[in-house]
Write a structure and sequence with these properties.
The structure holds 2 protein chains of 2 kinds. Chain A contains 9 helices and 10 strands. Chain A is an alpha/beta fold. In chain A, helix 3 packs across helix 4, helix 3 runs parallel beside helix 5 and helix 4 crosses helix 5. The radius of gyration of chain A is 18 Å and the shape is globular. Chain B has a domain of 228 residues. Helices cover 75% and strands 2% of the residues of chain B. Classes of the chains: A alpha/beta, B mainly alpha. At the A-B interface, helix 2, helix 3 and helix 4 of A face helix 1, helix 8, helix 9 and helix 10 of B. The complex binds adenosine-5'-triphosphate (ATP) and magnesium ion. The site of adenosine-5'-triphosphate has 11 residues of chain A, from helix 1. Adenosine-5'-triphosphate binds next to helix 1 of chain A.
Amino acid sequence: MPAQPLISTRHLTIRFGGHVAVDRVSLDIEPFTLKSIIGPNGAGKTTFFNLLSGQYRPTEGRVYFKGVDVTRLTAAARTRLGIGRSFQLTNIFPSLPVLENVRLAVQAQRRMGLKVWRHSRRFPELEDRAYEILETVLLQSKWNALASELAHGEKRKLELGILLALEAEVLLLDEPTAGMSLEEVPTIIGLIEAIKHRRDTTILLVEHKIDMVLALSDSIAVLKDGRLIADGTPEAISRSPEVQAAYFGGGATGA
Amino acid sequence: MTSDGPSAAPTPVQASRILEREARFRQPTLYLRLALTAAFALAPVLLPSFQLMDLMLKIALFATLVASYDVVIGYTGIVSFGHAMFFGFGAYAVGLSLGKFGAPTYGYLALAFALGVLVSAALALVIGAFSLRVKALFFAMITLAFAEYALILAVQLSHLTGGEDGISPKLPGVFAVSFTAGKVLGVDVNGRVVTYYVVLVVCLALFLTMSRFVHSPLGRTLQAIRDNEQRAEALGYRTFIFQLISSSFGSVVAAVLGGCYAMWVRYVNPESALSIQIMLDVLLMVIIGGMGTLYGGIIGAAVLLTARTLLPDLRAVGTLMFPGSEILQRLTERWLLYFGILFILVVFFFPKGVIGTVREVLSRRNAAR
Ligand SMILES: Nc1ncnc2c1ncn2[C@@H]1O[C@H](COP(=O)(O)OP(=O)(O)OP(=O)(O)O)[C@@H](O)[C@H]1O
Ligand SMILES: [Mg+2]
């Protein structure tokens, strides 16, 4: 037997009213690999992420992290276990400065949020670390701006920076490059590649840019109408007829 | 690459923090705060009138109360309508311990504050535990219901609380009306004056404590929760615990202030300590001054309380100067109405309140440089 999967789902299902957004999905994510989840708009990719990270509770099915059932845990508890995520719709602290956005994530990662006796400036190591992360996502020149004043692509970088600050074992990346300008995309791809090559982090990536997916992924899962219709190596997936129809034929376009 | 010891060049953040530290004694706001403290401390010496002393101390008390409300609503984003109830608990604790039961001793005074704080903390925790997890509106409604219920209890349980008539506590030792210790700087040092300074020091200490609270890592986390609760949770923060800490902390501060208020006015009744009017005043003050500023309360309290105190006097002056002017009298009768209109205009044009707007203008100007 190979190593135990880092995350597994079993018959994971969520229904909104009559609509089944995620339908009996059983998926294994091997440690230190990069797995992409692709599928047309509305396939349930974001909803699947929400089930993994605890934003939603499933109607049926289970989520396991390192073999432990985490289905009933809150989002906060799952983050503390090591499941970090970024959001498709930028999810930042708009009225706080950029550096503070990341500093809060560093503070969470170091479990220092309950300190109340000293001024927060008395912990410069948090700011130093936050600034380092801003440098990684090429946002250091904006450290003093309010997050709400950033351009869209910059907000996406901040979103990523906040996630990196958590130093999570698993990164759930929901369309990290969506809405970025063309010049910015390679930076982010380079960043993801660098993390992948460190071989200490497991990445789950949702992306519409199929070239990017094929280049980065160790394996690819395909969702359609909430169901898992394929799961395999990039080569196998790009040869599968259903995926061909959706991505390489005349059907839905990528990006 | 930044933590290679002192030899490494400072990052822009570090450089900016060093500059800030060096400039901290050159900040105008520091001197503004010192001047304000001096004004409160010197008022009884420079203008020995009871009316002025009363106004000043009430401004100090309410400014601090508004700041404690700001911790909850402005920094954490929790809308509570029960904040004044905790103020009332503190006031009634002093009333009951020094007026109805107990005796005018320092021991009972300490007991009163301990009781006010404990009861408030316990109730804030219970209310929060049951209703903070639910919708924000639910918390607002529950706190309003509790505040209303506390008011009804204070009126109904008259054998305990003195009902509508209230209680007049007698203060011990240096706080007693009969206490005198001669003159210092031309001021009669009596029980009133001692109470003034002790309450003022308590207000100042509470203000400093709250300032530390909101700027601590915990306070920063509260602001994150206010900004985006879901995101704060996705960072791993147990947002519920943080909200519970914040609302309980604010309630405890309010209780201490209520106790101080009862010591100053030496009287507690449902209307002066528990009525919804106090809550409305606090709300008005926090909106005028600006939420999430802590210091806004000083402006809000000063504006509202000064208007309340002085406008009836101005009316009297007006009537004296223009006797028979019925129009003037009619007009001035409605000063509260004008105040309401002014309030609406302020909210409309300065939604961030006075301090909030000033801060925004200043930070824009800094950014433009
Ligand atoms: N909270 C919700 N309530 C009701 N329906 C929902 C909810 N969240 C998602 N859905 C529905 O579930 C389906 C899947 O949505 P989801 O956002 O997961 O798709 P997606 O694969 O991420 O699509 P995209 O590529 O556009 O991001 C959609 O039909 C959506 O309307
Ligand atoms: Mg999506």
